[in-house]
Design a protein that fits this description.
Chain A: Keywords: Oxidoreductase. The complex is a heterodimer of chains A (467) and B (412). By secondary structure, chain A is an alpha+beta fold. Chain A has helices at 21-32, 69-88, 104-119, 130-136, 160-171, 214-222, 291-304, 349-366, 410-416, 426-433, 446-453; strands at residues 11-17, 37-40, 57-58, 97-101, 126-128, 146-150, 154-155, 175-177, 184-187, 192-196, 199-208, 232-239, 250-252, 263-266, 272-275, 279-280, 313-321, 330-334, 339-343, 401-403, 408-409, 465-466. In chain A, helix 1 runs parallel beside helix 5 (160-171), helix 1 (21-32) crosses helix 8 and helix 2 packs across helix 8 (349-366). The longest helix of chain B is centred in the last third of the chain and has 19 residues, at 300-318. The chains are: A alpha+beta (467), B alpha/beta (412).
Chain lengths: 467, 412
């Protein structure tokens, strides 16, 4: 049996397992290099797991551990995002970051952080005194002492970026199969056969980008793994757009041994977020929030930026970072088994993805595979949903505004339901358009959106039975 | 992508929002002979929240009979149109400018509308789950009453069958009626306080429909993969799980004041709406406001009357009969006072019908007081609860000379 809808006799050079940001970037890289590529995703759309819930920052790597693969991938991923983003129409909100010392002890750590940033090749990082800090961020609480300025840390769109990566992969010959968890697999010495509920796929190489399930996939198909996923939950609260004027830069804390700590940052959609927490948990299925923690995040934000006191919260969410017991990424090629594991991609996956994909491609080339890259690759342009750029509602002929909070048009929703990578479920539709993600959280538009989408995408059980 | 040049147009009065308040204001303006009155409505039809609310009781005071929400909304709309009001639907105001200019988007393109006066009547919305910081999973099937009504009455869709209802305001009972009308069987009603918020029909209605009423109970979190499977609640330190397939967050209305907050107009953290004087005039005198944008929440009928009243003041203003007083007094809220509307009084211009509206933020009993510095101007014995309307006639206050602030408070 061949996989439904692949149109390729189920024969591929590479099967990428997992449709998170790393899987999407991987599919793009391999398609652009000319490999016949398929991406298998167990859910009904991309970004069903950790990649949909992060802090949406483009990291310079200034604070990464020197000498790690993570640092190399973050640096490469950062550079490539800036290089390709205009051609894919991916947004960038150039905010810079300030890493603020609030106590004397924290201030004492700034020199070390600065030295590390310079050692990591991020040479424009510098110390700024209280006056310059306050001039830049006049709404900070008075306890702010001094800071490190990281001009290159920016805000991006965590959803349109991977969407653009996979979209470009598809436009350049790759395939994607959804609702296709890999249930079994067999290696015959030269090729893998992967069985999914939607059919089997034959590939000369498997790349495990299965995120929270990466160790399980290694264990079940490869027969062993050199890491164990230890999910680290991060909860976030997102303030109303009225909060955005009170912060210009990304506000970073002085990190501790264990975590980079809680960040305040504007979002590309015009809000302001606070998070993440860092909570170890066993469960891999439930990135759940809890009221007291959210309340603490909100209080924390108002302590650092007092104007946020009483500011309404638009959204709250949590993500599970697929951390492992190791500090660095776990990327390893098993040459004899034609298998590459990409595991333990913890909090830097959004920035690192493009760099990780390049690194994996070089490992793949090292296995002796050769392909001919398309001479003129296609560069599809993603629809813009960033607040600071021109939006669809500003162009006539959009039909109607469906979501009034986020000013999402009928034309945008229709576009998200069609094309080479249409929304597979309501979550995917939200992420592609912002519908239902504004301050009223669907008070006005959720019924209308469901009516438009009904029969065209997977709906949750019983949602939207016709009366 | 190049932004096309916005079109320009003008009118005498632009009214932002075509609900009961906005349509009431438009009607009053036309009846006073003001021409070029434009209502800007973002939905496909004017009428506002009642349009989504397919059950009675609307319209008793306006039309002398009991109407369903959609019928009531249509009557208000027809009355405005018959009076010569221009209603522009599918038009969203995106920005307010000083002196009365509004920017709007419609499928025909962007537009700059220069108005001599603008009346803001953008209404309210309910507080969704996220703003209440309710934790747990994030499954489908978590709605507000407004969303539920859109599913049932506008789209004819049933989002779930056995929801839990959070809250006991009047709108919570509207949620029960809506759910029942669509063949759902709500399983429980959860209220944090020891009593229901709405005076009527409260407890007996819940029982009549077979819901279990949980008073003094807090919603801890929501559970479910894909869609809602259960909620966990806590009553007096004991937790329990209620099986359900949906959650309806009802009430805790908030003024839809986004435009105000991103404009130069002053905004009041108590009411959540714009700062106004007793004529509904905002801090920029080209702007007025009416209806639930001023404070959450009053009935559709109240908002309609308030819209008519403010429409009349705007007509006065355009006919140079609404001067500004040299003396403006600000009202300060003491502990326990959630909101006061208006937040400012222009002394010496009071019309006889002007009222101060107050609400408290907790159960209170004692004396409600209004002081000027140390001097008591007014007091009344009162036992009240949150969401109960308190009205004080402005004429009851005689404000001494030299005073520019009044303190409103509660003494046990």
């Amino acid at each position: 049996m061949n996989a439904a809808g692949t149109g390729m006799d189920g024969l591929f050079d590479v099967a990428v397992v997992g449709g998170g940001v790393v899987g999407c970037a991987m599919a793009r890289r391999f398609a652009l290099e000319g490999a016949r590529t398929i991406l298998l995703e167990r859910s009904t759309d991309i970004l069903a797991g950790p990649s949909k819930a992060n802090s949406a920052l483009l990291h310079t790597g200034f604070d990464a551990t020197p000498g790690t693969l993570e640092l190399a991938c973050v640096r490469a991923g950062y550079a490539e995002y800036l290089e390709i983003r205009e051609r894919l129409n991916l947004p960038l909100l150039e905010t810079g970051a300030v890493l603020v010392a609030w106590t004397e002890e924290e201030a004492a750590k700034l020199d070390g952080i600065l030295a590390q940033a310079h050692a990591n090749g991020v040479t424009d990082v510098r110390r700024i005194g209280r006056d310059e800090l306050i001039a830049r961020e006049p709404h900070l609480a008075t306890a702010a002492r001094e800071a490190i300025l990281v001009p290159g840390e920016h805000v991006i769109d965590p959803w349109s970026a991977p969407l653009g990566y996979l979209h470009q992969a598809l436009e350049n010959g790759a395939q994607a199969l959804f609702s296709a968890p890999v249930e079994r697999g067999e290696f015959d010495g030269s090729r893998w056969r992967l069985d999914t509920p939607r059919g089997s796929v034959s590939a000369a190489l498997v790349i495990n980008c299965a995120g929270l399930w990466g160790d399980h996939l290694d264990q079940s198909l490869l027969g062993g793994t050199d890491f164990t996923i230890r999910p680290r939950k991060g909860q976030f609260a997102v303030f109303d757009k009225a909060a955005a004027p009170y912060l210009r830069s990304i506000l970073l804390p002085v990190p501790t041994e264990r975590t980079k700590g809680v960040v305040l940052a504007r979002t590309i959609f015009g809000n302001l977020l606070v998070g993440p927490t860092a909570e170890e948990q066993i469960d891999r299925e439930h990135p759940s929030t809890d009221g007291p923690t959210l309340a603490r995040l909100v209080e924390h934000a108002a302590r650092l930026v007092p104007m946020l006191a009483g500011m309404p919260v638009t959204a709250a969410y949590a993500g599970l970072r697929p951390a492992s017991e190791h500090k660095d990424y776990r990327i390893r090629a098993h040459a004899e088994r034609r298998w590459i594991t990409v595991g333990g991609i913890r909090s830097t996956g959004l920035t690192g993805a493009l760099g990780i994909a390049r690194h994996v491609w070089s490992l793949y080339e090292g296995l002796g595979s050769r392909h001919t890259a398309p001479a003129a690759p296609v560069w599809p342009r993603m629809p813009n949903i960033a607040e600071h750029l021109s939006r669809d509602f500003q162009q006539p002929g959009y039909g109607e505004i469906v979501c009034h909070c986020e000013l999402v048009t009928r034309r945008e929703i229709e576009a998200a339901l069609t094309g080479p990578l249409p929304a597979g479920d309501l979550g995917g539709l939200k992420r592609r358009t912002r519908a239902m993600m504004g301050r009223c959280q669907g008070f006005y538009c959720s019924a209308h959106v469901c009516a438009i989408a009904k029969g065209r995408i997977a709906m949750p059980d019983k949602l939207g039975e016709t009366l | 992508m190049m932004d096309p040049q916005p079109r320009s147009s003008s009118c005498r009065v632009a009214i932002v929002g075509g609900g009961p308040a906005g349509l009431g204001a438009a009607l009053a303006l036309r009846q006073r002979g003001i021409d070029r009155v434009v209502v800007i409505e973002r939905e496909a039809e004017a009428g506002g929240i009642p349009r989504h609310c397919g059950h009675p009781v609307f319209g008793w005071r306006e039309f002398g009979r009991v109407l369903s929400g959609p019928v009531y909304a249509r009557r208000l709309r027809d009355a405005a149109l018959a009076a010569g009001v221009e209603i522009r639907t599918r038009s969203s105001v995106t920005q307010l400018h000083p002196g009365g200019g509004v920017e709007l988007a419609s499928p025909a393109g962007l537009e700059q509308l220069a108005a001599e006066r603008v009346i803001l009547a953008t209404g309210v919305r309910e507080t969704p789950r996220s703003a209440r910081l309710v934790g747990g999973d994030r499954p489908w099937g978590v709605l507000t009453t407004g969303a539920l009504q859109s599913f049932v009455y506008l789209e004819r869709l049933r989002p779930f069958r056995r929801p839990v209802i959070v809250g006991t305001e009047l709108v919570s009972f509207s949620a029960i009626l809506t759910a029942r009308a669509a063949g759902m069987r709500p399983v429980a009603m959860i209220e944090e306080n020891g009593h229901t918020t709405a005076r009527w029909p409260s407890a007996w209605m819940a029982r009549a429909f077979g819901l279990r009423l949980y008073l003094g109970t807090r919603l801890v979190d929501i559970r479910g993969n894909g869609r809602v499977e259960a909620v966990n609640v806590e009553t007096g330190g004991k937790t329990a799980t209620i099986d359900c397939d949906g959650v309806i967050f009802t009430g805790r209305f908030l003024p839809a004041a986004e435009l105000v907050r991103s404009s130069p107009l002053r905004w009041d953290s108590g009411s959540g709406g714009p700062v106004i004087d007793q004529f509904g005039r905002c801090s920029d005198p080209a702007y007025f406001a009416a209806g639930n944008l001023l404070r959450a929440v009053e009935t559709a009928g109240w908002c309609h009357r308030e819209g008519r009243r403010v429409g009349g003041f705007v007509a006065d203003d355009l006919q140079d009969r609404l001067p500004r007083s040299p003396r403006r007094i600000e009202l300060e809220r003491g502990p326990g006072i959630k909101l006061i509307v208006p937040q400012a009084i222009e002394v010496g211009l009071t019309d006889p019908s002007a009222m101060l509206q107050l609400r408290v933020d907790r159960d209170l009993s004692g004396r409600l007081t209004i002081d000027a510095g140390g001097q008591r101007l007014w007091e009344r014995r009162l036992a009240t609860r949150p969401e109960r309307r308190i009205l004080i006639p402005l004429q009851a206050l005689s404000i001494p000379p030299g005073v520019d602030r009044l303190q409103v408070g509660f003494t046990p």
